[in-house]
Structures are given as C-alpha cells and as structure tokens.
Predict the structure.
Amino acid sequence: MRADAERNRAKVIEAAMAAFATEGLAVSIAEIGRRAGVGTGTVSRHFPTKESLYAAIVLTKVEEIVSRARTLMTAEPPGEAFFSFFTYLVTQAATNRGLAQALNGGGFDVESAANRTEHDLEGVEQELLTQAQAAGVIRPEVTRGDVKALLVACVAAPDPSRMIEIISAGLRNPS
C-alpha cells in the first residue's frame, strides 16, 4: 500500500473510532469521511462496507480487551481477575457507545468478528468465569450468558459503578 493510502486509512480508522464511540453504529460513512478529511470514495476503497470498517475498529478493541484479560489472569487471583475484567468491560462499554451497542448485539456481532481472528473474546471470558468458579468465588450455576446479560444491564444503568457492586455481590458464591 502506498504511504498516502496508509495515512488515509489510518485517518479513517481514527475518525471512525471517535465517531462510533460518541454516536454509535448509526454514524454515516459520509460523516466519517468528513471527520477524517477524505471523501466517501476514499473510505469505501479501504472499507467497502460500514461493517468492514466497524470490524476493523472492533477487532482492534477486542485485541486490547483480550490482552487485558490475559494480563489479569496472570497478575491476579481468579476471583479478582474475573471482577476486574467485568469492571473493565463495563467501563469500556459505558464510555464507548459503539462498543456498548456491539456487546449488546445491536447491529454488529463482536464475537463472530473476533472468532475470525486469534482474539478469542468468548474463550477468555469463559476462562475467567471457569477459573473464578473453580476457586469458589463465583456461584457455580452462573453461565457466560448470565455474565453477558449482566454486563449489558450495567452499561444501561444510570450509575454503572453502583450496578457493578450490586451484581458482583450477587455473583459471589455464598459458601
């Protein structure tokens, strides 16, 4: 790829990240091009569909999230790692409207996109949960689906940090 084409691609991704974070998935390609200082044709040459552009952005974010999960798994005991990761995901989604919509299944399948790469978001989430359950910290009947639904509830709440506290207490194994 030519140097100017690489610069334009980087500008498009940067503008799209900001636009999706503040406006969500509904932002138009024309608006992204305007923010990047390029035409819609330039955006379309690099990303033929809005989904392909969003996939590039989400995969960058998923890589960051998976890396964070792996770091927590080695740096903290299983229960702490699970709750730290849960809090991290809520915080990320609460400040990024596009990510929140994607995690909620609104218009983009994050897990499907992540599965096309080496970034196994589902896998690290399940691993964190399984390790916390094996350590006796999380209730054994809690599923990854439960955790995902609770994550969405936290993000939708007026005060996500309060919801994290309530949900964390409910997830803990009472024994």
Q: What stands out?
A: The chain has a mean pLDDT of 86. The chain has two domains: 1-48, 51-171.
